[in-house]
Amino acid sequence: MDSNIRCTREQLITLMKVRGREGAAKLGKMFGDASALTEDYLKSSITEGLSGDPDDIAERKRLFGVNVIPEPEAKSFLRLMWEAMQDLTLIILMCSAAVSLILGLTIEIESNGWIEGVAILVSVIVVVLVTAFNDYTKEKQFRGLKNRIKEEQKFAVIRGGTVQQINIAEIVVGDVAQVKYGDLLPADGVVIQSNDLKTDESSLTGESDLIKKGPNNLMLLSGTHVMEGSGKMIVTAVGVNSQSGIIFTLMSGKKDMADDAHDDDDDEDEDLRIEDDTLSGNGEIDIEKPEKKKRLKEKSVLQGKLNKLAILIGKVGLCIAVLSLLVLIVRFCIETYAIGQLPWVPSHSRRFLGFVIIAITVIVVAVPEGLPLAVTISLAYSVKKMMLDNNLVRHLDACETMGNATAICSDKTGTLTTNRMTVVSSYLGKKLYPHDPVINDLSSNYIELLCEGIATNSSYTSKITPPPPENPDQLPGQVGNKTECALLGFVKKFDRNYDDYRKKITEENFLKVYTFNSVRKSMSTAIPKSTGCRIYTKGASEIILKKCSSIINSDGAVHDFSSEERDDLIRSVVESMASNGLRTIGLAYKDIDNYNLVNWEDEESVIDDLTCIGVVGIEDPVRPEVPGAIKQCQSAGIVVRMVTGDNLKTAKSIALKCGIISENDGFIVIEGKDFNRRIRDKHNKISLNLMSKLLPKIRVLARSSPEDKYTLVKGLIQSKNIQDVVAVTGDGTNDGPALKVADVGFAMGIAGTDVAKEASDIILTDDNFRSIVKAVMWGRNVYDSISKFLQFQLTVNVTAVITSFIGAASIQASPLKAVQLLWVNLIMDTFASLALATELPSPDLLNRKPYGRNKALISRTMTKNIVGHCLYQLTVLFLIIFYGEVLFDIKEGRANETAHSLVPTKHFTMVFNTFVQMQIFNEINARKIHGERNVLQGILKNPIFLIIFFGTIAVQVVLVEAGGIAFHCLPLDLDLWLWCIFFGAGELVWGVMLSYIPSYKLPKSWRFGTKPVEYPISEPDSVPDNRARVIISFRCCI
């Protein structure tokens, strides 16, 4: 370990605060240059990096800090309890209980007058404890998920002369890090080598243009995105000392100050950002605006519908509660003061308090505050299980949105194909080789030219690794860009080692690099030669060949390359390879005598007048499981579209193999430029009407740019006659806009860039299309689970509210007491959420059409079940309330209730017990929402449901037999218990009878929640820090 580090943490932080030319000047003044900073001050090496010595790494962590930004402190259980107590209905209940307790202790009507107040308080405490416990376990689970995402974040650094992928938390000051297109920078640093390196710093500085990094702008900042090029940097600040870390610390430690600053900067921010382009009134889309902007994103489909429904139910419950309160007060006043002519006495205050408590309990039962819990439990459970199916969910609401998906726009490479690329055909030296080339046909000069061009004109992070010693028969590993790996593997076929060329020509020797991007669709590298320089170029074969004016034959002689020869080559070689599903890559070069006279900024003139070396055909086989998965999607009513940069013939061949299209099916395979032409009107604006006519026919978009992909996705979502719920896959940096505008964005966990992952909702850890199908299944299961809970809860709500209201109007008291309804509320909210939201998905979920964007949240079948079961339950309850003493030979208890006596009766204990038993058995019915008759199917596969079912029965037995005055219960005889269970079990028989009523004959007005409430949410285009983020996005408005 070399402990002679000659700079301090403070000096490096000061350096990184200055940017541009000023920053370069400050670097020169403080340290000389980037090389001196690396070698002399930080005691690292530009070529070898740090030694990797553990003592040296530990010392650097001590001196400069660790690359970790501390998490906000987790909420304590007491804090969560306090937050749970902020619920308005619980506050009112606690106040009412306190008043009841005071009156019970001070006004001696009955010796046990204080018990009701205590019972309500105890019930509220139980509700608070359960809510806090659920929040605590939920937060713990998602902190674990966040930590897992962090653990999987790796970055490339050079240590001991070798490139290593290390966890970002292990990066230290002095590390030499390799940066490339698509990276999210995990630390601050100074550029020590740049190959056309450009970054997006809008998340930190608000600057919307890409910043070119080079001699005049050397500072790389953590939390910013590498949008183009590659290079190296020396790490100068990590963790809380990095620029994003400093901002995060200020936001966490001085929130009020930050808020004030934010308010002051509002106007400036508006100038810096361009609003999201939306459809104009005349049906046009203008997508030709910069993508660095503030986005507006709708709430998820299900959440919007739930919000609308919750608002409606809350209003109805409030109205009935107020009406109940008015009826009780008016009737009592008329009977007591007008008819009975009785004077006011203090004990009457207790009666009025009882009326208020009845009204509050109606609200408690009516308001579906259990919906957020049901959604959270269902999502949390599903997210945990989805990890096992290779879906890492970043945004929770994406899980249930996938259940509504009607369209999937999928990449080809790595998602539909194996992403294991191999050169299987080639055109070299003006000769076509359908298989491996014959080495003896080619001169050594030609082979040297070909191999040097491939080895140097590719990212040096792309490489072939040998099979592990324990499994020598395994295929060599491919690290980095798989297309480049295929070409590097092709070099080995000529008995050459690409590493030999790279050692001779290091990246520091490059004169200029034009890195690959979606616009140029090629990569070019200029390397010095003894007589000048040579530029090697590779890329899409049609594009490269059009820039060639000559061609080299097998003996190394260069000949003119006419347009007729070029067209013939494209037709006979390129199109032939593409028809077999091969990706074709053109290889070319150009020699320049005096590179000092070259204007490297004029790329068009530099990369022109090339000499064609050859064309290779790269095979990327379709994953064997993909055709079956796509067939499953089609059976599930989901349209799968392929979006690829490959040419039309390659794309069509792969689409046929995958089953996305079939011969003569009438669907369109179209290129991006043709797609763009056909959706624009005479003013060159994108027309919604033209798009709506074209989109239903498109199945494959070939030679597409990220802008084409964005337009396709946005059109599918906004088209009035389609309004698809769209899932999109992406792996590149420029896929960010499409991933963000989609309802659900899938990023590739293996091949995806950090930028794509940051823009996504779900990360596919295996880059496999089959995992998307599993996400659809889980999403539909979440949607169904919440619908099951909704069906169950609304049945309880309606029955309890009507029972309480009729009771208030007829016997001046609710047949169900406040403390009893709190227990029922606990059954509905927590226990039913757990029981119904943890059902495992079945393959049958993929045998029906998707719900889509405008499908009713409550279907006609569900409404039939809710109304039908409410009628059954109300009939049973009113029979017991008004005729119980006749039917069951028990003492009549209505007079006792009217007098508001605290002494319980068997009559109304039976009302309470029967009500609960009916809910418990109806929970079984609620497991099915599509009219199935066998509600017991699969029940043994859900142990959580069984535990809750029998556990609830057990607790109910205890409450009835031992609850006493606190729960307003008297122990029941065996025959009464059997009657209660009989009425409860009758729910199962009644449910089967309801299933015979055809739902399609019911009026369409029986559907509710057809359209979501739209709440635009401001979502920034990028995130100002590099920490993994899990956004829990559930909002329920009551």
Automatic annotation (TrEMBL):
Subcellular location: Endomembrane system; Membrane
Domain of life: Eukaryota
Enzyme superclass (EC): translocase
InterPro entries registered for this protein in UniProt: ATPase_P-typ_cation-transptr_C (IPR006068), ATPase_P-typ_cation-transptr_N (IPR004014), ATPase_P-typ_cyto_dom_N (IPR023299), ATPase_P-typ_P_site (IPR018303), ATPase_P-typ_TM_dom_sf (IPR023298), ATPase_P-typ_transduc_dom_A_sf (IPR008250), ATPase_P-type_domA (IPR059000), HAD-like_sf (IPR036412)
Domain Cation-transporting P-type ATPase N-terminal, residue spans: 33-105
Record field: catalytic activity: Ca(2+)(in) + ATP + H2O = Ca(2+)(out) + ADP + phosphate + H(+)
Single Gene Ontology MF annotation: ATP binding
PROSITE patterns with a match to the protein in the record: ATPASE_E1_E2 (PS00154)
EC numbers, comma separated: 7.2.2.10
Keyword Transmembrane: yes
Gene Ontology terms: cellular component: endomembrane system; plasma membrane
Signal sequence coordinates: none
UniProt keyword terms in alphabetical order: ATP-binding, Calcium, Calcium transport, Copper, Copper transport, Ion transport, Magnesium, Membrane, Metal-binding, Nucleotide-binding, Translocase, Transmembrane, Transmembrane helix, Transport
Transmembrane segments: 88-107, 113-133, 309-332, 352-381, 789-811, 866-888, 944-970, 976-997
Cross-referenced PANTHER family: CALCIUM-TRANSPORTING ATPASE, CATION TRANSPORTING ATPASE
Family membership noted in the UniProt record: Belongs to the cation transport ATPase (P-type) (TC 3.A.3) family.
Free-text function comment from the UniProt entry: Catalyzes the hydrolysis of ATP coupled with the transport of calcium.
Protein name (database record): Calcium-transporting ATPase
